[in-house]
Specification:
This protein has helices spanning 2-9, 62-73, 81-103, 109-112, 130-140, 184-196, 216-227; strands at residues 19-26, 34-43, 48-51, 114-117, 150-155, 169-171. By secondary structure, the protein is α+β, with helices and mostly antiparallel strands. Helix 2 packs antiparallel against helix 3, helix 2 packs parallel to helix 6 and helix 3 (81-103) packs antiparallel against helix 7. This is DNA-directed DNA polymerase.
Length: 228
């Protein structure tokens, strides 16, 4: 088939595999148009293939990547649109389980770590981004923090007082789970985004995840309504 298309169109095609499920996601620039570089799929042998989503990015924490793979894995064997939609409540349940784990405060430093590459000298940053704060901390620790250097950090308070930006993040090497408290809301936000980004549909009800009073009762109510 690939050869026939190549011969007919003069556009080279190659066989990648047979997919049970494939989802082409909306382009960020043109939301109504699916992007060929932004998709995920599950082959008939169970292999998961992804492009342009969180699991492919270096600056996404391990717990978010693990969660996104778990969301996708729910759709193993879903070969029709109807089967796909029936699995969504199960995928949401997986999301809620990860949210509960983050809110428990017991996620390990390795799972929370964000990895980024410094783009300039610490003194050249004009905005107190996570990257900038981490770069300054790295420099103070005695490491030459030049452009191109990798930095690893954990988010402590995404909404830290602008006068105390150093409270935003801490270098992973200095993080102590017994002394420091990671920003649960921010990590839940990253989880929520990773879930939403694998679907071409909206989930406005997930805004509840970011509310302080979000709890398991809300989870059960949401799942019951969705299934009904």
């Amino acid at each position: 088939l690939a050869d026939k298309i190549t011969d007919s169109t003069d556009i080279h095609m190659s066989w990648d595999g047979l997919f049970d499920t494939i989802v082409f996601l909306p382009s960020r620039a043109e939301p109504d148009i699916p992007a060929l570089s932004h998709y995920w799929g599950i082959k008939n042998d169970g292999e998961i293939k992804v492009r342009g989503i969180e699991v492919r990015r270096r600056d996404i924490p391990k717990i978010v990547k693990d969660a996104q793979y778990a969301f996708i894995d729910v759709f193993q064997g879903a070969k029709t649109v109807e089967e796909f939609h029936k699995r969504i409540p199960e995928a949401k349940k997986v999301l809620y389980e990860y949210v509960a784990r983050i809110n428990s405060g017991k996620v390990t430093g390795d799972e929370l770590t964000v990895r980024q590459r410094i783009s300039r000298k610490p003194s050249e940053y004009k905005v107190n981004s996570y990257q900038a704060v981490a770069a300054r901390q790295l420099e103070r620790s005695g490491v030459v923090a030049s452009a191109g250097k990798n930095v690893r950090y954990i988010i402590l308070n995404a909404e830290a007082d602008p006068n105390f930006p150093e409270k935003k993040v801490i270098l992973s090497d200095f993080y102590d789970g017994k002394k420091h408290e990671y920003d649960r809301k921010k990590y839940v936000e990253l989880l929520k985004r990773a879930f939403e980004n694998i679907f071409p549909i909206k989930f406005p009800e997930l805004e509840e995840l970011l509310k302080p009073d979000f709890n398991t009762k809300l989870i059960q109510k949401d799942l019951t309504c969705f299934i009904e």
